[in-house]
Design goal:
Layout lengths: L2 H28 L3 H32 L1
C-alpha cells in the first residue's frame, strides 16, 4: 500500500468515525435511561479517542509530504 492509499484509507476511517459519533450524540439526546446514557458515553469517548488517533496519523502523514 502506498502513501496515497494509506491517506485515503485514513480519511475514509475518519469520516466513518465522525458519522458514528454523530449517531451516538443523536441517540444520547433522545435517551432518558441512565444506564444507556452511561454506556453511550463510554462508547462516545472510545470513538473520540479513535478519531484523535486517526487524525494524528493523517496529520503526521500529510506533514511527511511537505
Amino acid at each position: 500500500m502506498d502513501n496515497k492509499e494509506y491517506l485515503e484509507n485514513l480519511r475514509r476511517k475518519e469520516q466513518t468515525i465522525l458519522v458514528r459519533i454523530e449517531k451516538m450524540r443523536k441517540t444520547m439526546n433522545e435517551t432518558v435511561e441512565l444506564k444507556t446514557l452511561g454506556f453511550m458515553t463510554d462508547l462516545l469517548e472510545e470513538a473520540k479517542k479513535e478519531l484523535e488517533m486517526v487524525q494524528d496519523k493523517l496529520s503526521a502523514s500529510e506533514n511527511e509530504k511537505d
